[in-house]
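Structural prep section.
Before we set up the soaks we want a predicted structure of the protein with pyridoxine-5'-phosphate in place, mainly to decide which crystallisation condition to try first. Input record follows.
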Amino acid sequence: MGALLGVNIDHVATVRQARYARNAGSINVEPDPVEAALAAERGGAVGITAHLRQDRRHVVDRDIFRLKEAIGTKLNLEMGNAPEIVAIALKVLPADVCLVPESREEVTTEGGLDCVKYHSALEPTLKAMRDAGIRVSLFIDPESDQIAAAASLGAPVVELHTGAYAEAAGAAREAELARLIEAARQAADTGIQVNAGHGLNYTNVQPILTLPKLVELNIGHSIVSRSLFVGLEQATREMVECLRF
Ligand code: PXP
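Run finished without errors. Recording the tokens verbatim:
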């Protein structure tokens, strides 16, 4: 039981961009997301996640290529379904791609990718990724029709959006957890790997470990925040400890 940890290093790049947005591609700018990835690996991360956004607000193209070269675990490239970014993914060839919404209209009620509405737009991307040997995960809300759409797209993995759970309190949080558990069961019954993420931290993550067949959690903001005080290797190690069940 428990879950494996993928560390999202986007916000290391966010700090870099706060100072160096105009020359993030040059050398000696800090902090370096690749150095952060290596520290997360030393702390026990089994994968590194980075989101190459179309607006390049944090991670930039060069980061993705350097991460692929430097890390010893696996790269999970988060991306929207945009032709420009798909082309980059097919050049980088990360182990995993996680397709996420980037514009308002792609988002379901709670913020996952709307795989029902965008089924036909997603089909060719999943095929291209599959043909290139990239494993695709779809970042979806814990809803039955989204899981059915992921299954019909042939997605091997879904990442269940835990944002609504993270934002809720009391009985509402319990209800969100129940939805996540039900969605995880449905995905697992369909033969889809269950990952989850968004908004998870050191204090709210434990109940998420009860999701049936949960394999990986992708966590970023809370780990990068804690790293300011204890360093990224230690912050990662502490989260790995939290994920032992
Ligand atoms: N998973 C996905 C698909 C995400 O988009 C994000 C946020 O970039 C995360 C996980 C990590 O979320 P957080 O930074 O809140 O831990």
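Observations: Residues 170-189 form the longest helix (20 residues).
Flagged for discussion at group meeting.
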